[in-house]
Design goal:
Two copies of one chain form a homodimer. By secondary structure, chain A is α/β, with parallel strands linked by helices. Helices cover 31% and strands 23% of the residues of chain A. In chain A, the strands form three sheets. In chain A, strands 1, 2, 3, 4, 5, 20, 21 and 22 form an eight-stranded mixed sheet that branches. An eight-stranded parallel sheet of chain A has the order 6-13-14-15-16-17-18-19. In chain A, helix 3 crosses helix 4, helix 7 crosses helix 8 and helix 10 packs across helix 11. The radius of gyration of chain A is 26 Å and the shape is globular. Chains A and B meet through helix 1, strand 4, helix 7, helix 8 and helix 9 of A and helix 1, strand 5, helix 7, helix 8 and helix 9 of B. Chains A, B: It holds the Pfam family Amidohydro_3. Chains A, B: GO terms for molecular function: hydrolase activity, acting on carbon-nitrogen (but not peptide) bonds. Chains A, B: It comes from Novosphingobium nitrogenifigens DSM 19370.
């Protein structure tokens, strides 16, 4: 009999089926958010060798027994709280990794403290050709002078070290860095800069202002090895915080290649919902439509990220009325309404999801109007994403409601931005426009799906702080008392959904992960705090004990080096 | 228990009896080249459900029986010749597909003949937004005038059609093309061009010289959908010629994305050994080292393609002595010797294979010297590839021998270039330099591994013509009698190896495909001619009856549209 590829693949898939070896997770206080937004409690669940959940057991259900007819592996939750792996609905994976790869000296209290940290950091990263860092301040150290290359050499002599001062107006180099940069006694001092020198003219260690460029240009640009390391570093940092999935907002071709290298080498464990950095990158990577889910649901390019305006702090956010603290500007739009519509059409016509950065009320109004216009052409389940949705004029809330009813709308918001921005936002907007600022409850009320994230590395990718802020609109110090515009707080179900089921829905992933339910991937965390019942202060201090992705443990607080 | 993906897989595997879903191929005259270069004949072979060969049976061996303990599927070779799938050691996959996607009118004998072909081509490609072609010549048609848009409209009215004349100095458009380009009676005639017009001034159909640009700029640039179509088209064309693998020489990021889309969608069947278009593309795609073999050995980026000089025809080939027919030039080098060494080092230090285009004797001399220098630094099995190796000064042959003994060297040559270039090469080189031109036998004698290819689309990717030329150094007409410098002919074993085992070796793929042997992929073809015994004329006319890749049929002459 002749055979076709089709029949061969069918047989091959049967061959690929795992041996019957299931894992039971029990002795847990399990909590997951159901599609209808209610809390589902469970006492145990079973997942198979491919890391897919087979059965979820409610309290009182009869559990399977060990053995061929039951389960072969067992995880004892020791009575702890088990939640679905958390999802950051808006972050930047590679930038997060790169931020973690540099040394932060902002907390150092003395030169010796700094030298010790530098030495430890270099020892912890033997593969790094250069040690790069920032944040030092000799005044804070009570040193009364700049530190020297010789002092830095005593900590790290084998490689160049280049550390920027807290104000970025000076840099501290070791001898290897000066050698790599070719800076000697005969190097002239650049215009607008200064080179601290020894008696014999050789560089002493610190370069000021324009002179920093002499070393900057010798620092090697990131290599693909650096990219691979940055990804692994980001994955590990997210895993220890209980984050098992993320929407990568603005994936470049280079980022994508890095994700694929990890997947091809079977070392990608984070679930990445990639949104291309613009429509050209989208088309180059994914082509005529979204990619399939790759690597057992760990990577997909399903959409595009566009920018409509800038940020509030720099007064780049596009406002309907002038800035309260700078009446001569409304901010700026990065795209005309026609350009925005064309770019969104280009993506939507090929079935890509569209995610648009919109901060100011004018940007959000224009975006919502454009979405409603496009929704007459592009039908079906679109889940238009508004990234940040920071200030939306209450007059535009009905637009949200209409889009929610026709195509769907996701408000992709970052709770911690509210506390970080509060005083700045009040200054920029004045009292009359605050009703529509960070208006989580109102946007949910209007019909938007709330997906929560961190915008990492802009903020730490810590979902526990995010949940605590979502419940209180207070910062770590408890300010302001009672919360800022507390009517926009959300309840604990909405907060947890924002970091699990709703964040998965926002990426068209709700049938794959984001809940503990049959047929979904076994992504889960064990924690020491119940976000449904604990105080916001306690939630903020949550310790993640274990993180599992696809039935594999990627973090264990008792052996943090763990990994896959 | 609830049914899940996992449990359905288990059920399927229970029914599939995977251990015995093998396929026996018998009743064949099987021939494959052994690693030692000798011919191995076989009467049958067995491959498993993953498309991997398990056992090869020599004539007289006892064959397994059908059933649970033997094989489940059977392919009757009907006594025909079975060979390993052929490999093109130097081609351009995407350009080959794009060349096939345009309509070739060079063979048309009349306007009605042309219109019929245009109509059929449009009907065969309903998804093409534009119909693009070339090669028409109204003189050859005996038309005595230019064809008209109205005539073209009668063949294709629903889409723009744009057909360049054989000399590319004129283009023939239909009304839809004029509409798309906005060309009307009021369109001024561009400087240096002409617009054939009707009495009322409307364009009549043909645009001459500079006026062609008016339509050219309206032709949409290729989309990712076009890329996907070009790849599928190239795969189908190669499959019908018996080609199951190819070295893609100069893979761009866009090409790579297209290959991956096909692999991700499980529609890539051609085996592509990708060599990146330069070291930057190499690093962007593959990162710190060659990619793994992807998609069951169907795609890998294992190396980089560099260019050291140009081509002989355009006198871009870099020669030691001046051109015989243009004594004021030696041709040109595209890289300095330092640049060449640096680029080769950048690739070699990360374990990438290096393939360098070298045509002229100076280019080949410089390349061989550079390889020998690098081989002191980069040890082990390197298989340095010289692409084309067209003219190598016999004084440099000892370099080939030394490199062969230390790192290994592949002469990646295209037999058909010899017949296409013969007269031109004699003119360019004069009589004294021909000894080192297209010197297949001498380079093999010197120790190089001969890998044969077509440089498709520069030449048709037809390995049968290549084998016939390799045996004769004669063109299709049999010229020159006795063959051109017949001392450089190779025997049939070397010719077949050049398109199978040696071509796989040249891409570090010899343990995966290129032979019929246990553990290798079941890539094979059934043909009507035995290249070991037939005359070169007969080999040239070989018909491929079936082409199989990885145990799946991708071409069947009895149902050419069939395959996957």
């Amino acid at each position: 009999m002749r055979r076709t590829i089709g029949s061969m693949l069918l047989a091959a898939s049967a061959l690929a089926a795992p041996a019957h070896a299931d894992t039971l997770v029990d002795n847990i206080k399990g909590e997951t958010i159901a599609p209808d937004g209610t809390l589902q409690s469970f006492a145990a669940f079973l997942f198979d060798d491919s890391g897919v959940i087979k059965t979820v057991y409610r309290p009182g259900d009869k559990l399977p027994k060990p053995g061929r007819k039951g389960y072969q592996f067992h995880i004892d939750g020791k009575g702890r709280v088990l939640l679905p792996g958390l999802i950051d609905a808006h972050g930047h994976v590679m930038q997060t990794g790169y931020a973690l790869l540099t040394l932060d000296l902002s907390e150092t209290t003395s030169l010796s403290d700094a030298l010790a940290r530098i030495k430890a950091f270099a020892a912890a990263h033997p593969d790094r050709p250069w040690i790069i860092g920032s944040g030092w301040n000799q005044e804070r150290w009570g040193l009364g002078r700049f530190p020297t290359a010789a002092e830095l050499d005593s900590a790290v002599g084998d490689r160049p070290v280049w550390l920027e001062r807290a104000d970025y107006h000076a840099g501290w180099a070791n001898s290897a860095a000066f050698k790599a940069a070719g800076i000697t006694a005969s190097t002239p001092t650049p215009e607008g800069g200064a080179i601290e020198r020894l008696a014999d003219g050789r560089p002493a260690g610190v370069l000021v202002d324009k002179a920093q460029g002499l070393v900057d240009k010798a620092v090697p640009p990131p290599t693909p090895r650096d990219d691979d390391l940055a990804l692994t570093t980001a994955e590990a940092d997210l895993a220890r915080r209980g984050v098992t999935g993320i929407a990568d907002m603005g994936t470049s071709t280079r980022d994508w290649m890095t994700f694929r290298r990890a997947g091809d080498a079977n070392r990608l464990y984070l679930r990445i919902m990639a949104y291309a950095a613009g429509t050209d990158t989208m088309a180059e990577i994914a082509g005529p439509g979204p990619t399939p889910w790759l690597y057992a649901d760990r990577l997909r390019m399903g959409g595009v990220k566009l920018f409509l305006d800038g940020a509030l702090g720099s007064r780049g956010a596009w406002l309907k009325a002038p800035y309260a603290d700078k009446p001569d500007t409304h901010g700026l739009s990065l795209l005309s309404e026609t350009q925005l519509g064309n770019l969104m059409s280009r993506a939507a016509m090929d079935g890509f999801q569209v995610a648009v950065h919109a901060i100011g009320d004018k940007a959000n109004g224009v975006l919502l109007t454009t979405i409603e216009d496009l929704s007459h052409t592009y039908h079906g389940d679109r889940r238009w994403r508004v990234e940040h949705a920071q200030i939306i004029d209450p007059a535009d809330w009905p637009l949200v409601t209409r889009i929610a009813a026709n195509g769907g709308i996701v408000a992709s918001m970052q709770p911690v931005h509210q506390t970080s921005d509060r005083l700045m936002a009040e200054a920029r907007l004045g009292p009359d426009r605050l009703k529509g600022a960070y208006a989580w409850a109102s946007l949910k009320q209007a019909g938007a799906v709330l997906a929560f994230g961190s915008d990492t590395p802009v903020e730490l990718p810590d979902p526990w702080t995010g949940i605590a802020v979502a419940l209180t609109r207070q910062d770590a110090s408890g300010a302001p008392a009672g919360g800022w515009r507390p009517e926009e707080r959300v309840d604990s179900l909405t907060a947890l959904a924002g970091y699990t089921s709703a964040a998965a829905y926002a990426g068209f992933a709700e049938t794959r992960f984001g809940r503990i339910a049959p047929g979904l991937r076994a992504d889960f965390i064990l924690v020491d705090t119940d976000p449904m019942t604990a105080s916001p202060e306690a939630i903020r201090k949550t310790h993640v004990l274990q993180t599992w992705i696809g039935g594999g443990k990627v973090y264990d607080a008792e052996s943090p080096a763990g990994g896959k």
